[in-house]
Each structure stands twice: as structure tokens, then as C-alpha cells.
Write a structure and sequence with these properties.
Number of helices of chain B: 2
Number of strands of chain B: 5
Largest sheet of chain B: 5 strands, antiparallel
Order of helices and strands of chain B: EHEEEHE
Strand content of chain B: 35-45%
Structural class of chain B: alpha+beta
Radius of gyration of chain A: 28 Å
Strand order of the largest sheet of chain B: 4-3-2-1-5
Helix content of chain B: 10-25%
Number of strands of chain A: 11
Oligomer: heterodimer
Chain lengths: ~625, ~80
């Protein structure tokens, strides 16, 4: 941080496009989406103006008022007031306002102005405002506010030129600071009304498209129906679109592995490359298409503005199990990964609602579990068509996701029983305008996800796979040994010990062993099984599904799938729970209850399934 | 009349927001969001389960409010 850099903070109401503006200015790739509370942390970037001035830009969580209600709003307030640890108050505040919704956003602008610091107002989404026929008299608004006002379109290249020119120029004078008390806050609304009458003409209060879509999307019957169909189609699509690509990648790696095998001399190196790298890693990478399909739909939902509608429809249901409509968005993003989901709970104001959401978030099936499900379903569930249209494999996948959701509802209900309180929990949630998802944002989102996956694959998953290979290979069998070589390796010993715990669930020693690396990263269970079976000589690089089908029963497979639906989350999730709740106790509760639930559910599944087979 | 009793689609104007208890943060937030005297409001949609929450349009903004939250807002229906 150089002393000469001008420090600029972007602030404004939630969902007004601060982060889009930040990305446009700094070339950043921070997540943007169409709901309130996407940005939950302060983010920092740099930007050099045409005149060579270096700007340090802070992107802050959106807030409706300085009377902060939730942890993310608190950050914004602390930064602006210069109370954020290790950070001086910004030199210039750029207040971003949605030009289509000035009645709400101008009030916060006035509140910011009262801090008595230099402020520039950026009227964002000017393109949308023009389309709706909203006319803003910018010079007059500037004159009345007494601060510079510029127009921006954060989602368009060059959409921030006016803002850049303004901050590159002379520093605006600070407005006079004034105290914040009850009566003066009421005055703000009076001022907003005067400003609007004098400077803004709106042909219509809302976008016609929003009214038309909401008539269906929020309809008491059709709304729920649409929500159900949307969710169901997403999971069907994951299987239908992802599977052929997965098979293609699997075949490709099999071919590569065979060629590598042919060119390497027999020995430990060949075994490491073929069994460990191609067998282990190759199997996991094949599931990237499924993960990307899932993400594609999550991104579409996020960008369109539909998610807060879903939250509206489900609020009452979620309330009855001790959660809130606001939990819906963090829980949905937990289908991608519990970590951003748990961090996203910062936009929930109520501490009890927030903790309950954090505790159930890991029950949402994260994308790292998808490879495990996909592998087992592919190996054990026949490719039937049910009722002519539904694919049985897709249905089983849907059922596993549903099991997680029902589990979360049950756990939420229990938390509500244990942690009774009579205080009221607010919803107070803004529903944004619908927006056409931008292909570029979707592409960036998918790219980010793919690169995270590949990083994990070449980092932690690769390391664990090599370790798994090593402990499955060494030590070699003693002279005169009669059993399979792998039984004498470290993996063999560990697996057989673990089996004492997991045998009642129908897990053989190989599965029991694979649960350990799965604790670091779920997908590794697949790589570990692939490696162990490959070293044991039961499988070639592509035949893991066959090896599994030959080695254990359908009852065991079902039991293992159920285990993964409820099993204790990965280490990173536990670390995030610790960080977000500042409590090891919550980490213990979270891990403990999931272990008990997973063990009980798998035990039940296995014992019942055995009766029928 | 309370906002929670306002029929769907009927135009009304906010009269005031009452604190449900002393230093009620929900009431304060409602005022900050623009629920102040003279502001036109309308119930746009009603939640599917137990007719809760309500979708309230105020200005150009739509807020989902639970019935208990909407009950803090007193509105008057004006002859249109």
C-alpha cells in the first residue's frame, strides 16, 4: 500500500452494482449476482487513471443504512467511519445508486453525505433507467445535493468513463458533517421526496416485465410448481448433460494410461503413473462436466434475480423448521460448496437464524460429492426409464439431494426445539428486478469454478492420491505370503482396522480406508478407491465402476451413498465454521451430529437393503 | 388499518411505523427503507403457505415482509 495512492470506497444500497463497477475499474473478477448481499467482505483493488494517478479501490458490502443490522453491514460502517482495524477512513467515497430505484437509494446517499467526507454519486444502471423511460436531471440533482454526480453503466465496457474522469480531477470538497439523531433521520425522507420531485420523472414505478413475471413466479400455486420444476430439471440436466462428457473424458484418460503403461518399464514408477495418476486423478477429472453443468444453472438462477423469489415462496416453510427465507440463498450456494454458503450467511441478521443455517449448510450436497454419487450410481443403478421420461439414475441422484434437504429440515427443527427463544426474527428482504444473465459473467463464473477444481485436483487431491498409492504399495508382501500383496501394505492394515467401525454399514476395508482422504476433499474418495483397486489388481484405469460392482453389493453401495449425503464435512468446511462462528464448540457440534446421523442412516439403509437383496 | 390487513392490490398510503417494543430495530429498519408518512404502498403478492410473507411495493422497491413485520406499519386507504 503506497502512501500516495488515493483511497476510494464504493458504497451503496445492496444490489446497486458496486461490485460490477469495482470489476470494471480494477479488472477484478469478484462475484456479482442479482440479489442483495452477494459481497460480504471488503475487497481491494488498484486502478491507474489516464493521468497516472494510482487509486486504491475498496468494494464494500451493501447496506441500507448506517444503523447496521448484520455482520456484513457492520464492516461497511466501520470502514467508512475509520473504525476498521488497521485501516484509515477512505479519502473519497463513491456512493453508488441504482438509477431505477432512487427513492430508496438516495436516502442512503444523504446519510453518507452527512459523514462530512468527500463524496461522488455514481448513478448506476443508467441503461436500464433509460429503457424504462426514467429521466433524471443530473445537473439539477448535482446542484441540489451539492456533490458531483456522474452516470455509469457498470456492466458495459467504458461504462465508468465519467466516473474515472471525475475522480481523476480535482477532489470534491467535503460536505458539512451533521449528527445522526431520530428527527434528522426522518428529515432525510422529506429531502429525498423533494429531490425526486425536482429531478426525476418516472413513467412507471416498476418494470412491466417484473410485474408480468412475478404474477406467475410468486403465484401461490404456480409459483411453487415452477420452483419444483426448476429444481428438478437442474438435477436431471446434471446427469443427462454431464454423463456423456464424463464418459468421453474417462475413455480419453484410459487410452492415455494404456499408452503410458506401454512405454514405461515394469516397476513402482509404472505403477504410480498408471494406478495412481491416471487411475486416481483421471477418474476424478472426469466429473468436471457434471460440476460445471450444476454451476451453470446455479449461476443462471443467481444472475436472473429468481433466487430471492424462491426465498419468498419458501420463507414460511423454512421458518417452521427454524430457518428463514434468507437462508435459502446461502443454502442453495452450498450445493456448489458449503464454504461460500457458510460465508454467505453473513447477510442473515439474526444470530440464531445464522447459526442454524451454518449448521445445516453442509447437509446440502456439495459438488465435491457429485463424483462419488455419479460413480456409485453409474456402477449400481440401472439405466431405466421411469414413466417414459425420467431417468432412474437421475431420480436416485435427486433422491440423494432430497435426503440432504430433508435432513437439514429435521436438524433445523431440532435446533429450534433446543434453542427456544421468543424473540422475533426479521425477514425484510428486497426482491430485485429481473435481469437477463450476461454470458460473460456466466463464463467467468464457470471458468473460476473449473480452475478451483483443477487447482484442488493438482494440489490436495494429487498429493493424497500419491500417498494412497504409496501406502497401498508399501511395504510389499513378505516372502512366502499367500494373500493378495495389498493386504500386507499399510493401507491394507489401516483399512482392516477401520472396517471394525464401518462393517455394520456394509463397507469393506477399501471403502473404509477411502473415507479418510475424503475428509480432506470429498472427490478423493473416488481417486482413493480407484488407486486401491488398481494397485490390488482388480481394475484397470477405466474399470473402477466394474471393479466396484464386482466387489460389493448394492446394499453397500446404497449405504455408502447415504453416508456421503450426511457424513461430516471436509476439513475446510470445519475451518470456515470455526472462523465464521469463532467457536470450536460449534465445530464439534457440527462434526459430531453429522457423524451420528450419517452412521445411523447408513446402518439403517444397509440393514434394510440387505433384507431385500 | 395495518399493512398486514391491507387487501392485495389495494392502493394505500403509509401513516406511521410503530415500535413493537422499546428500541425496536425492525421498526427502525422499516423507517429507513422508506416506510414513512405519505409514502404510497401496495401488497403485490402473498406467500403460498399460511399467506405469509407479504410482498410489499413501496416506491419502486419490493420488499418481502412477514406479517408480524407488516403489522408494525399503519396505512390509510385513500379514495382513489
Amino acid at each position: 500500500m503506497s502512501a500516495s495512492a488515493l483511497r476510494i470506497a464504493l458504497v451503496g444500497n445492496p444490489n446497486c452494482g458496486k461490485t460490477a463497477l469495482f470489476n470494471l475499474l480494477t479488472g477484478g473478477r469478484q462475484k456479482v449476482a442479482n440479489y442483495a448481499g452477494v459481497t460480504i467482505e471488503r475487497k481491494e483493488g488498484r486502478f491507474t487513471t489516464p493521468s497516472g494517478r494510482v487509486l486504491q479501490i475498496l468494494d464494500l458490502p451493501g447496506t441500507y443504512s448506517f444503523d447496521a443490522n448484520s455482520p456484513d453491514e457492520q464492516i461497511t460502517r466501520d470502514v467508512l467511519e475509520g473504525n476498521y482495524p488497521g485501516e484509515a477512513a477512505p479519502d473519497l467515497i463513491v456512493c453508488v445508486a441504482d438509477a431505477t430505484n432512487l427513492r430508496l437509494h438516495l436516502r442512503f446517499v444523504l446519510e453518507v453525505k452527512r459523514l462530512g467526507r468527500p463524496v461522488v454519486l455514481a448513478l448506476n444502471m443508467m441503461d436500464a433507467a433509460r429503457r424504462r423511460g426514467i429521466v433524471i436531471d443530473v445537473p439539477e440533482l448535482q446542484r441540489r445535493l451539492g456533490i458531483p454526480v456522474v452516470e455509469t453503466v457498470a456492466v458495459k465496457r467504458g461504462g465508468a468513463t465519467a466516473l474515472v474522469e471525475r475522480v481523476d480531477g480535482e477532489m470534491p470538497a467535503a460536505a458539512a458533517a451533521s449528527i445522526d439523531d431520530g428527527p434528522s433521520r426522518a428529515d432525510l425522507h422529506v429531502q429525498v421526496r423533494e429531490l425526486l420531485t425536482a429531478t426525476v420523472s418516472m413513467p412507471r414505478q416498476t418494470a412491466e416485465l417484473d410485474d408480468a413475471l412475478d404474477r406467475w413466479a410468486l403465484h401461490p400455486v404456480f409459483g411453487l410448481l415452477i420452483l419444483g420444476v426448476v429444481m428438478f430439471l437442474v438435477f436431471q440436466a446434471v446427469y443427462a448433460a454431464g454423463k456423456p462428457m464424463t464418459d468421453l473424458i474417462g475413455d480419453g484418460f484410459g487410452w492415455l494410461g494404456d499408452h503410458a503403461a506401454a512405454s514405461l518399464p515394469v516397476g513402482p514408477i509404472k505403477s504410480l503413473v498408471v494406478d495412481g495418476l491416471f487411475g486416481g486423478i483421471g477418474t476424478v477429472i472426469g466429473f468436471l462436466p457434471e460440476i460445471l453443468v450444476l454451476f451453470f444453472f446455479i449461476l443462471l438462477l443467481e444472475e436472473s434475480g429468481y433466487l430471492p423469489r424462491a426465498a419468498f415462496l419458501l420463507d414460511r416453510l423454512m421458518m417452521s423448521v427454524g430457518l428463514t427465507g434468507r437462508s435459502f440463498i446461502p443454502l442453495l450456494s452450498s450445493f456448489a460448496c458449503a464454504i461460500p454458503g457458510i460465508m454467505g450467511t453473513r447477510s442473515i441478521q439474526d444470530p440464531r437464524d445464522r447459526l442454524a443455517t451454518i449448521l445445516v449448510a453442509p447437509l446440502m450436497t456439495c459438488s465435491a460429492r457429485l463424483p462419488v454419487y455419479a460413480l456409485l450410481i453409474g456402477a449400481f443403478i440401472p439405466m431405466h426409464h421411469v414413466l417414459g421420461v425420467f431417468n432412474l439414475q437421475g431420480l436416485v441422484l435427486f433422491a440423494l439431494y432430497a435426503a440432504g434437504i430433508l435432513g437439514a429440515m429435521a436438524v433445523g427443527w431440532v435446533i429450534k426445539r433446543i434453542h427456544r427463544d421468543k424473540s422475533e426474527h426479521a425477514l425484510l428482504m428486497e426482491l430485485p428486478s429481473y435481469r437477463m444473465p450476461k454470458p460473460r459473467d456466466i463464463a467467468i463464473g464457470l471458468w473460476e469454478r473449473a480452475s478451483i477444481f483443477l487447482k484442488r485436483l493438482t494440489g490436495v487431491i494429487l498429493a493424497l492420491t500419491i500417498i494412497m498409492w504409496a501406502i497401498s504399495t508399501f511395504p510389499g508382501p513378505p516372502a512366502g505370503a499367500t494373500g493378495p500383496a495389498i493386504d500386507y501394505s499399510i493401507a491394507g492394515y489401516m483399512g482392516h482396522y477401520l472396517q471394525y467401525i464401518f462393517a455394520p454399514l456394509g463397507f469393506n476395508w477399501q471403502i473404509s480406508l477411502s473415507l479418510i482422504p475424503a475428509f480432506a476433499a470429498r472427490e478423493t474418495a473416488v481417486a482413493a478407491l480407484a488407486t486401491v483397486y488398481a494397485v490390488g489388481g482388480d481394475s484397470n484405469t477405466v474399470g473402477l465402476a466394474h471393479a466396484l460392482a464386482a466387489n460389493f453389493s448394492v446394499a453397500s453401495a446404497l449405504s455408502l451413498m447415504v453416508w456421503f449425503a450426511f457424513a461430516p464435512q471436509c476439513m475446510s468446511t470445519l475451518a470456515v465454521i470455526r472462523r465464521e462462528t469463532h467457536s470450536w464448540r460449534n465445530v464439534g457440534i457440527s462434526f459430531g451430529y453429522m457423524f451420528v446421523v450419517a452412521y445411523a442412516a447408513s446402518l439403517l439403509t444397509y440393514q434394510i437393503a440387505r433384507l431385500f437383496s | 388499518m395495518r399493512l398486514s390487513d391491507l387487501p392485495k392490490g389495494a392502493p394505500a398510503v403509509v401513516d406511521r411505523v410503530d415500535d413493537a417494543h422499546a428500541a425496536d430495530p425492525i421498526a427502525q429498519r422499516l423507517r429507513d427503507l422508506g416506510f414513512v408518512d405519505g409514502e404510497p404502498v401496495r401488497v403485490v403478492a402473498i406467500g403460498p403457505i399460511g399467506a405469509d410473507p407479504l410482498l410489499i411495493q413501496i416506491g419502486s422497491t419490493r420488499f418481502a415482509l412477514r406479517r408480524t413485520e407488516a403489522a408494525r406499519v399503519t396505512v390509510r386507504q385513500e379514495a382513489a
